Amino acid sequence: MDARSTASQSDRAVILLRELLLDGSCPAGTRLTELGLAPRLGVSRTPVRHALARLAHEGLLEELPRGGYRVRAFTVDEIWSAIELRGILEGSAARLAAERLTDATALAPLRRLLIELDHRLPRSLTDFVAYVQINDRFHREMWTLSGNRMLVATIEQVVRLPFAAPGALVFGDAEVAEARWTADLAQSQHQAIVEAIERREGARAEALAREHALIAWKNLQRALTNKALFARMPGAALVRVPFAV
Fold first, then answer.
1. pLDDT tens digits, residue range 184-235?
2. How is the chain split into domains, by residue range?
3. Distances (CA, A) of 6 to 1, 58, 137
């Protein structure tokens, strides 16, 4: 197997294993080994070894002293810390984007995504799924405009933790109105961030991006009041929540 094929298999193993963790197939506390995962992921032990190390680096697994890994459990306080950190990092990205902007045409991709988001403001839960996907592209474009690859890589690591991603939003069938309200709020903040970047207002862009990250926290707080809704959120199986019901 050549290096390119090995890398491809490793990337596939990372993606598949991350999905198993976030969808609850491997609950918190589960011990994972190369030997046990290889047939489950459909790859050899070398890609599995890479995947385990990668997800331990991301914070989803913890390495055991006697070998192997264990699926990590998160407290609500730890999730809040991850969301807070995302806000700090995205704020830095927005500030750098504003300070380093030399040509307003560089904002064209962000403006196109704003238009796409306007057209996808949810009138149904199906619309909301499409909105979340475009929203993810918007955030990644903003990170890229910072011009700092290490910052982008750090943000990408943080948003892989449960509930920390910009699109970590889940609504039930009876919550279309709330989904629309959340999307409207997010969109107004998106527009304000782009305007601040265009005006080279670094401090304002940073403050807006930090505030924007709080949407994820408010969504988590809402989900914590509904056990069934919370269970549908990616990564819920990794979070220890003492539900009263």
1. 889 999 999 999 999 999 999 999 999 999 888 888 887 787 777 777 777 8
2. 3-72, 76-235
3. 6, 21, 28
Report the CATH architecture of 3-72.
Orthogonal Bundle (1.10)
Three-state DSSP state, 106: helix
**Helix, strand, or coil here: 72?**
coil
- State pTM to two decimals: 0.81
Of the candidate CATH numbers 1.20.120.530, 3.40.50.150, 3.40.50.10840, 1.10.540.10, the domain formed by 76-235 belongs to 1.20.120.530
Cite the DSSP H helix spans in the chain: 3-22, 34-41, 45-58, 76-100, 108-119, 125-145, 149-158, 176-198, 202-223, 227-231
Cα gap 42→11, rounded to integer Å: 13
